[in-house]
Amino acid sequence: PGFMINFGKNSFAFGTRIKEVSSVNDFDEDFAYSLFHHYNDLISYLPAFQNEHASAAVNAYAEYSITYARKIIKGDKHELSAGVNFKVLDKIFYASLDARNIRFNKFENLLDTAVNVHQSEFDLLISNDYEEGKFEHDWRFDGWAIDAGIEYLFKPSALAGDYRLKIGVALNDFGMLRQEYGTESFHFIGNNQSVSGRSLLDENGDINPFQQVLDSIGSRTPVTGKKNITLPSTLHVYADIKIIPKLYLYGGVQVNPYNFKNKVGLANLPTQFTIIPRFELKRIGVYAPVSWDKFEDLTSGVGFRFGQLSIGSANILSSIIKNKYTGVDFFL
């Protein structure tokens, strides 16, 4: 929820929201599929795999924001606006996995199956909001963030809402969030020994609890302390062109200003390219978003606007024509 107040060329806004970003980076395909089949199947699903580096993270937090925007130039044909949004943050939950030199081998004989993770190592870091299987949270100030942007508008006439070209640049979620690691955080390193598969199972033939399995194939060391975590920042550059009356073409690129490869896992958003042709009338609109990023490849969808209500999907068309179904999103 939030509200906005206008004073001539100046605007002020206040708002709150809860945000969550999850990401997975650089996972080997075989490793990812083995996790998808649940770690119970690691022994039977793959004979061997290795992953030089992989990371994953989830970051959830609340935002309390105050925004100031000003129309710097307001002419008959040209408009220039800029704004800045300052946010106070309250962490809700954070977890990250940073894995290095992952190696898994399975050796089979007539009597038993043995596994060896060599000297695989990873850091599993979980905030102190989650302790002993329970989630507890105290509301407090834990960080800050800034959004800032500037937008230019070219209009063929002074008619409100009628423009030929709109271009802009925006920096979103530039800031830090302080995290304190809880008792569930630890560093793991493999013992480089072949371990009997039977020792990883309980008396019913089910695999032992995850931490017990880790203690059988390596060692865990608790990790404590606090750290400032970089937020999932993006730089957004876009343009919206009126091609003919009622027909518009939007193009934009979302850039991740940080390079997370071979670094500690952080929740982040991918670099993404987007094109959206759309047909706009006063009360209805139709648009067809097309986007590309390295995780989802090329996706396309369709959306509709009825007054102030929009409904659609960003990937329904590409999901229908793909050989492998990966899911469909919808928005309202």
Per-chain topology:
Layout: E1 2-7, E2 10-25, H1 29-36, H2 42-45, E3 48-74, E4 78-108, E5 113-116, E6 121-126, E7 130-131, E8 134-135, E9 143-154, E10 165-180, E11 186-190, E12 195-196, H3 210-217, E13 218-222, E14 226-230, E15 234-244, E16 247-255, E17 272-280, E18 284-287, E19 290-293, E20 297-300, E21 302-306, E22 309-313, H4 316-321
Folded structure, characterized:
The chain is mainly β and 332 residues long. Helices cover 8% and strands 57% of the residues. It contains 4 helices and 22 strands. A hairpin with a 3-residue loop joins strand 17 (272-280) and strand 18. The model has no long low-confidence stretch (mean pLDDT 84).
Largest sheet: 20 strands, antiparallel
How many β strands by DSSP?
Answer: 22
Q: Note the total helix count.
A: 4
Distance between the termini: 17 Å
Radius of gyration: 25 Å
Structural class: mainly beta
Sheet-strand content, in percent, reads over 45%
User: Approximately how much helix is present in the residues?
Assistant: under 10%
What form results from the Cα inertia axes?
Answer: elongated
String of helices and strands:
EEHHEEEEEEEEEEHEEEEEEEEEEH
Tell me, rounded to a whole number, the average pLDDT.
84
Low-confidence stretches: none
